[in-house]
Amino acid sequence: MTFPDLGKMKEMMSQAREMQAQMEQKLASTVVEAESGGGMVAVRMNGKKEVLRLKIEPTALGSSTGDIELLEDLIVAAINAAGRRADEAMKSSVAGMMSGLNLPGIE
User: Fold this and answer.
1) Would you say the pTM of this structure is higher than 0.70?
2) Cβ(91)–Cβ(16) under 8 Å?
């Protein structure tokens, strides 16, 4: 490996670290929302898949044990849907960042 190659490698590593820092910032600032049960349960999540808010409509609360199990299922469904939306948002962001690098095979 020659010195110019080493310089290029260092530059690429520096760019990779910068991209990683940008991705971390983007993950924290990306916010998605999802709901289940026709809006009875709503979840707000960031790109790091941290739940920022969980909202449960009062009508979702019932008096029987079956209602609690249903509510638990609705919460899980809303969280999973928000996670999928976070993944989609991040894939889109990564694709946009990668296209700016002009790497072969990536458009």
Assistant:
1) no
2) no
Alpha-carbon distance of 13 to 15, in angstroms, equals: 5
Question: Which amino acid is it at 65?
Answer: T
Decide if 34 contacts 82 (C-beta within 8 A): yes
Helix (H) or strand (E) holding 20: helix 3-29
Question: Which of the 8 DSSP states describes residue 58?
Answer: G
- Average pLDDT rounded to a whole number, residues 3-11: 81
* Angle, vertex CA 8, rays to CA 5 and CA 9, nearest 5: 85
pLDDT, position 33: 96
Query: Exposed, middle or buried, 14 (CB in 10 Å: 0-12/13-18/19+)?
Result: exposed
The percent helix, strand, coil of the chain (3-state, each to 5) is 60, 15, 20
* Domain annotation for the chain: domains and CATH numbers: 3-99 (3.30.1310.10)
d(CA 46, CA 19) in angstroms, rounded, equals 19
